[in-house]
Amino acid sequence: MADVRYRRILLKMGGESLTGSEGFGIDPLRAAEVAQIVKDVYDLGVQVAIVIGAGNLWRGSVGTRQGMERSTADHIGMIATVMNALALQDALERSGIVTRVQTAIEMRTVAEPYIRLRAIRHLDKGRVVIIAGGTGNPYFTTDSAGALRAMELGAQVLIKATKVDAIYDQDPQDNPNARRFTQLSYIDFLNMRLRVMDSTAVSLCMENNMPIVVLNFWQKDSVKRLLLGEPIGTTIRSTVASV
Asked: Is there a contact between 163 and 216 (Cβ–Cβ < 8 Å)?
């Protein structure tokens, strides 16, 4: 077993990670790429729980702008996360990893209900657990679900998978001089109103001292290298030595 920094992780990824060149929907080839990245981490002996979003299938803001009731729009998004979870489960199973999908909204014919102790048991048995359905409540993002599940499952870190290599004070695509952070405190993140992660999720992590690492999921071996001790992405935690 490799000497890794964290033994149990919660990986929070957006639904866009399963999107192909069309920019929407589920691409099985893309799901296979995600599964390979997860497998590389799993093969280190790391226990992996995943919370996935639904931005590739549905965004509640689209519905609410057209007059849809917010709770209805959010529940549609929760159901869409289950579709993504099943697609990722299929890709992981085909790569040889035993996987369980649990949902905050019960769908017993396709997935287990989310039960904390059962999820922990799966992790201890070497299974990857994909948790769908958000928190099961409207008005909460899947970032908040990721933070909540990380605490409940005793993860040692919450990894936020993005397409950017770190947190910047401005969009680096718009401003090449944007400041890149290797470390941030929770308070600094909240005060700067950075939008890479939901403020409710960061506040919950702050209250429970859960470190967050924001990294580029598609950068070669980024998650694996982080676990092996390399300084990857931006770490958000209680105190920082330098920014």
From this structure: yes
As a whole number of angstroms, the distance between CA 132 and CA 142 comes to 9
Q: According to the 3-state scheme, what is the secondary structure of 169-214?
A: CCCCCCCCCCCEECEEEHHHHHHCCCCCCCHHHHHHHHHHCCCEEE
| CATH code of the domain covering residue 152 | 3.40.1160.10
pLDDT tens sequence across 3-25: 999 999 999 999 999 998 888 99
Buried b (16+ CB within 10 A) or exposed e, 117-137: eebbebbeeebbbbbbbbbee
* DSSP letters for 97-130: --EEEEESS--TTTSEEP-HHHHHHHHHTT-EEE
How far is Cα 90 from Cα 31, in angstroms, rounded to an integer?
Answer: 9
**What is the predicted pLDDT for the residue at 241?**
56
CA 243 to chain CA mean position, Å: 24
- Classify residue 3: in a domain, yes or no: no
Distance CA 217, CA 226 (A): 11
Domain, as residue range, for 56: 8-237
* Domains contained in the chain, number: 1
Domain annotation covers residue 198: yes
Domain presence at residue 243: no
- Whether residue 242 is contained in a domain is answered as no
